[in-house]
Structure formats: C-alpha cells, structure tokens
Amino acid sequence: MYKSVLCDLSGVVYQGQTLLPGAGSALNKLRSKGLALRFITNTTRKTKSDIVANLRAMGLTCEPDEVFAPAQAARTWLEHRACTPHLLVHPALEIEFDTGAASEMGAVVIGDAGEAFTYANLNRAFRVLNDGAPLLALADNRYFRDSDGALSLDAGPFVKALEFATGTTATVLGKPSREFFELALAATGSSLEQAVMIGDDAETDVAGALRAGVGAALLVRTGKYQSGDETRNDPSPTAIVDNLEAAAAWIVNAID
Amino acid sequence: MYKSVLCDLSGVVYQGQTLLPGAGSALNKLRSKGLALRFITNTTRKTKSDIVANLRAMGLTCEPDEVFAPAQAARTWLEHRACTPHLLVHPALEIEFDTGAASEMGAVVIGDAGEAFTYANLNRAFRVLNDGAPLLALADNRYFRDSDGALSLDAGPFVKALEFATGTTATVLGKPSREFFELALAATGSSLEQAVMIGDDAETDVAGALRAGVGAALLVRTGKYQSGDETRNDPSPTAIVDNLEAAAAWIVNAID
Predict the structure, then answer these.
(1) Helix axis angle, B70-81 relative to B178-185, nearest 10°?
(2) Which residues does chain B have within 8 Å of residue A123's beta carbon, measured at their own beta carbons?
(3) Is the whole-model pTM more than 0.90?
(4) CA of A53 to nearest chain B CA: how many angstroms apart?
(5) Cα of B208 to nearest chain A Cα, Å
(6) Do B119 and A114 touch (CB under 8 A)?
(7) For burial by CB atoms within 10 Å, which of A29, A61, B159, B255 has the most?
(8) At B183, is the secondary structure helix, strand, or coil?
(9) Across residues B222-234, what is the average pLDDT?
(10) Which 8-state DSSP code applies to residue A133?
C-alpha cells in the first residue's frame, strides 16, 4: 500500500545539530523495505546544498534529489511568471534566488527571515505589496523549536501580518501545499495516497498533509510537539508515535 | 441631537507637524456651537502630555481632559488586574507605564512600536504569551500615513502576528473599542448616540465607531484616506466630506 515516506527534518530527524536517538537506523529500516524516502522541510534558513551537507555530516545517507525545500518551489513559481523577487528571507537563503534575471514584475517572497524581520524590511515589503505585487510565502508555520530549546516565531505570523495590512492572501509554497507534496513525490512514481508523512508539527505536517491527500500522517512526540497537539487539529493524526524509530516501525508493520 | 464631537487627530487635524487647512477655524466653529470636543487618537508613539503640547504648539485650544489615547485605557486595565506590563511599544510611550508597581502577573502590551518591532522583541513577547500572559493591544489599525507621505505598518499587523502565533485573541483598548469611546465621552454627559466621530480611517474611525454605537461617523478625504475606502467597510460612513472644515459644516447644519 504505502510506497513513499515524506519525512520532516528538524524535530524529527535531528534537533539543532544533534541526530535524534534511533533516527539513523529508522531511516535505514525504511530504505531496506524498498520505500522511497523524501526529506521535506519548511526550513527557510538553509540552502538545499546546506541541508544535504548537514545530513551527511550527521552520518546519514542522502541524495540531493531526496531533499525538498520551499525555495525550490518559489524559484519555479518566479521563473514561470518572470517575476523579480523582493526578498524577506533569511540572509543564508538569498543565494537561492540569485538568478541574475530582472523584470518589471515584482513579487514579495517571505520566509523565516529571523533577525532580518526588522520594521524597516517589513515596511518595505508592505509598500511593494501595496503597489500590487503578489505575496509568496515559503512557509506559514507558526513557530519552531529554537536552538535554545524554547519556541520561536516562524514565518507564518509575519505572513499573516502582511496579509492583514494589505488585505491580500499569500500563495503558500511549502508544506502543507498540495503542490509541494506532489513535487516531492514526482520522481518516486507514487501518488499522494501511497505516501506516509512523518512530522512534529500537528498542524502543517500532519493535518495539512492529510487535507492535501497524503495517505497517512504520523505525529511524533519529539521536536516542537507539545502535549495535546494531537487534539488541536482536524483531521487528527493517523497515529501518534514517540519518535522516528516508532514511526518507521508503524510503517513497516502497515506494509508487511 | 448631537452634543459631542469625537475627533481623530493625525490625518484629520494635522498631517505630520502641519495643521491641515481650515482645521483651526473648524474646531472653533464646533466649540462656538456648544459642542463638547474630544480628541481621540490611536497614536501610540506619543504621551498624552506630548499630544496636548503638540496641539497647543500648532495654535489650537486644548485641555488635557479633551485628549484620549489608548495608553490611558491600558494603564487602567493593568491597575485593575495588578498586572506588570511586558512592553512592545514605541520607546517614547514607555514612560506612561512607569508605575513602579511590580507583580507576578504579566501582560504583553503592544502598540505602534515602529523600529522597536525587532524579531528579538517580538519573539520575547511571543514567549511571554506562550506562558499564559494576556495580550493587550493599544490599537489594531492596519497602517498610517507616515512622515514621508507613504503608508507604513501600524500596530494591527503585529497584533495579528502574535495572535496567529499563539492562538490567543488580543483585547483592543483604542478605537474602535466601545469602552474607549465611552471613556472619552464620560465627562461630557452625552451618550454614544449623541456623538459624531470624524476620522480618516474608514475601518477603525468610521465603521468601527458606528458598530460601537456612535450616532454618526464622518469620513474625511484627508490623511490616510484612499479613493474607494468608503465602500470597503460595513456600515458605510454617515457622510463623506472633503476635510475637517466640511465635517464641521455638516455637523453645524445637522444641529441647527
């Protein structure tokens, strides 16, 4: 039944710079069963090549084609419409948009800009939107578990701020957009229904994936998970499991 | 019928540091007809004494009791609940909250903080809210006309950002809260129905005042007014007039 596994990264595979216990063997177990693995992340602070290098530095097997991040989807979106991006993203991600192309059509691209979310930068983006530019959100997550262990504001609250200020609605390119899940699965040959999503974000990774048509979505109790998350969203997770290791066991049991 | 006039300041009486044409004589005309005047503003970048001094410097007659700004309402709110404010306001406004009182109960107070809306400050407020503190918004306007003539982000978008991040709803203390209009009118002896609001913000000043029960609300075509504003909100303005002078003429005509 299930042919592919869509796996979130931060809070599921690793936390900060540390691999979560059992994550490596869990991923090997899934690969050994012939399942296609896709790492899909809404992290908008790292380039795709940084993500791949980071996973390999932790000792994991990872091919570039297995990693999907919103900047890739945004690049495609901008190229199709010949739009020049007005970036409100993390400085580390700016290089992903350095195409050299310039057009009169502009689009505001917003990600998890972190410290780059200054009033001046937000106000500049607001003015570009007021002139009619579309708003492209790399992600709209509410928060993430920061390196200090506490929750920090993600891109979503700032997307909502600009939507409220301008009366426009953002096009969201990362999870839980159906297009993003489909893009990640394209080369695996499996449909949305044949995929299982594993994530620590009950809203975006789990309820969002199920609404987009993903076959099953497992909520792990690691990362940003907080007690009660499983009841705060509709639809509920297909299953709630302790960690990635338990998620892999659930999937192997389901396909055996 | 009408006994009081509630008049917005920025964009109605003055723009930046300049009195709008005819504003002084319009206010004198209203006073000469025996109408009680109240200046009510959602500006959260100036203390009440700064506002009074500013109006007097422009040559206008103004008593402290005639000026109502959200910080006054917030002070009352915090005192009643013995809450210590965690401030996300413009530095110039911090002195209004310098009561010296400290309690274990905290509340996040958000205003038009301008450059003080840094990621670090917003994130600190987010964490205080996550610990269960209530969110108190001095105002929730979307934008204002800045000193450079263009529109800039007001407090509202940042209120929405924190509401979205935490799943809480802010208590809004400035216009268009009914309590704020009532507080402004308290010493005049007139009811909400006996008051006319004059403003350049079709949403907060006009539709908001009418929803709160104010008798009439006039939209002026100065300040942040943009063509079409009169049709974007429900209820519609009682009348749309060119400026404060025309608003005064409309009121004098209505009571004569």
Answers:
(1) 100
(2) 152-153
(3) no
(4) 28
(5) 17
(6) yes
(7) B159
(8) helix
(9) 93
(10) -
CB-nearest partner of B164 from A118, A120, A142: A142
Q: Using the beta-carbon criterion (under 8 Å), do A115 and B118 form an inter-chain contact?
A: yes
Structure tokens at B234: 């429900």
DSSP string, B120-153: HHHHHHHHHHHTT--EEES---SEEE-TTSSEEE
From B122, which residue of chain A is nearest by alpha-carbon distance? A153
**Given its phi and psi angles, is residue A107 left (phi above 0), alpha (psi -120 to 50 degrees) or beta?**
beta
Given an 8 Å threshold on Cβ–Cβ distance, is B116 in contact with A118? no
Residue B171 three-state SS = strand
The Cα A177–Cα B165 span in angstroms is 19
Contacts of residue A117 in chain B, CB cutoff 8 Å? 118-119, 122
**E strands present in A150-194:** 151-153, 171-172
Distance (Å, rounded) from C-alpha A137 to C-alpha A82? 17
Query: Reading across the β-sheet that carries A239-241, which strands appear in turn?
Result: A67-68, A36-40, A4-7, A195-199, A216-220, A239-241
* Nearest alpha carbon to residue A210 among A185, A187, A233, A244: A233
Q: What's the rounded Cα separation, in Å, for the pair A162 and B182?
A: 31
Asked if A119's CB is within 8 angstroms of B130's CB, the reply is no
Q: Do B113 and A119 touch (CB under 8 A)?
A: yes
- Give A128's Cβ-side CA count (13 Å radius): 24
B152 - beta bridge partners?
Answer: B144
Q: Do B164 and A160 touch (CB under 8 A)?
A: yes
Residues of chain A below pLDDT 50: none
**CA dihedral in degrees (A42, A43, A46, A48; nearest 10)?**
-30
Q: Give the pLDDT confidence of A23-63 residue by residue, as tens digits.
A: 999 999 999 999 999 999 988 889 999 999 999 999 999 99
* Residue-level pLDDT at A105: 85
Among B150, B154, B165, the residue with its CB nearest the CB of A153 is B165
Tell me, what's the ipTM?
0.79
CB B200 within 8 A of CB B237: no
Q: Residue A172, SS3?
A: strand
Contact at 8 Å (CB) between B89 and B109? Answer: yes
Give me the residue from B116, B122, B154 closest to A153, CB to CB. Answer: B122
- Provide the 3-class DSSP secondary structure of residue B192: helix
- B139 forms beta bridges with none
